Amino acid sequence: MTRAHETNLNLSAGLMSVAVALLLVLAKLWALAATGSLSVAATLADSGLDLMMSLGGLAAIAYAAKPADEDHPFGHTSAEDLAALGQALFILAAAGVIAVAAVRRLISPDVSLPRDEGAGIAVMVFSILLTLALVWWQRRVARKTGNRVVMADSLHYVGDMIPSIGAIVALWAAARYNLGQIDSVFALGAAAFLASGAVRIGKQAWDALMDRQADPAMIEDIARITGNFPGIHGFHDLKTRVSGSRVFVNMHVELDGSKTLNETHAIGAALRRAITAAHPRADVLIHQDPVGVTKHPEDTRG
Question: Domains in the chain, please, with CATH?
């Protein structure tokens, strides 16, 4: 798959996310006006933040797709991690607001029951079906491109379905058994679920911004490919770091020092192609050392 095709897929996921979020905000605004339900308000707040984050994520996807330039020789993919971290912070703030409102209603002596529960339930069912369609496309795109913003957005929308299901149960229970407090209980549970997802997404983005190494399975596979590659007598200083959907790989390989520069270059280039064929999102830099060379005493770095 070409970089241009990956970019188009990521942009399609971003545009679909914005469209779905806008539609859900409008639908839930109507549902909140019709029902006055706090659990519906929780899902509305979440969808409102979804819209802002989807717009930010779309901008980040477009910016990250820019090619490397003089000021950013490693590209712009860190924008994906910044957007994902921003998403996590917004989700965490929304969870806090919802939790405070739910607790205040729980301890209030006057509990108002939701109105027109049928209309609210219909909107929540519509929300779940639309979200399922979006998540299906996002997961498909993320599997092909590995884009961190799309993956974070997909995880968030999966989490959105839990509060929507909770809102349906709360509205049904309020209508059937006059249980006004259950609306607040489900809103509190939705806030906890959102906070948990925000912490998980934020940690992934923070790790990437702090140059955390790639997945251990990927590192192990690169080591396996290198160790078994013809002409390679050994390797060392295999280092990786993640930036958005890209993984930067640096390593030293040991080659026969009696070979010509053209011959050793051909081996190194073939190894790089083998690694990128197995891991298309890897950006590989290989340093060639003669077998048995000893480090210069003044060379304090690897």
Answer: 3-209 (1.20.1510.10), 216-290 (3.30.70.1350)
